[in-house]
Amino acid sequence: MGKYTKLLTSILSGSSDKNIAFEDLCRLLLRLGFDQRIKGDHFIFSRVGVNEIINLQPLGNMTKPYQVKQVRQIILNYKLGSLDADE
């Protein structure tokens, strides 16, 4: 199981929302086809076909747990969980 598959599994399980590294979540969103914009400490992700905009802010080097929950909902709602090439 590759790094991104493990991260995606961890996010979808909902058991470790406090332990998701901010940089890893940003990279996962980019791999899932999201475009990234940075404004100050706000990392804003959008994607064609996804109505919601994801606005992430780091908490040290981790992601805020409520933001992981928001990302999980978007992945589930839009069925974005398939990663073709894993590293």
Main β-sheet: number of strands, strand sense, barrel status?
A: 3 strands, antiparallel
Low-pLDDT stretches: none
Q: Separation of termini?
A: 9 Å
Instruction: State the helix count.
Output: 3
Structural class: alpha+beta
- Which whole number gives the mean pLDDT? 92
**Percentage of residues in strands:** 25-35%
**Helix and strand pattern:** HHEEEEEH
Nearest-angstrom radius of gyration? 12 Å
Report the oligomer.
Answer: single chain
**Strand order, biggest sheet?**
1-2-3
Mass-distribution shape: globular
Helix percent band? 25-40%
Work out the number of β strands. Answer: 5
Can you describe this structure?
The chain is α+β, with helices and mostly antiparallel strands and 87 residues long. Helices cover 39% and strands 25% of the residues. The protein is built from 3 helices and 5 strands. The chain has helices at residues 3-13, 22-31, 65-77, and strands at residues 35-39, 42-47, 50-56, 58-59, 62-63. The strands form 2 sheets. Strands 1-2-3 form a 3-stranded antiparallel sheet, with helices on one face. The chain has a two-stranded antiparallel ribbon with strand order 4-5. Strand 4 and strand 5 form a beta hairpin. The radius of gyration is 12 Å and the shape is globular. The N and C termini lie close together (9 Å). The model has no long low-confidence stretch (mean pLDDT 92).
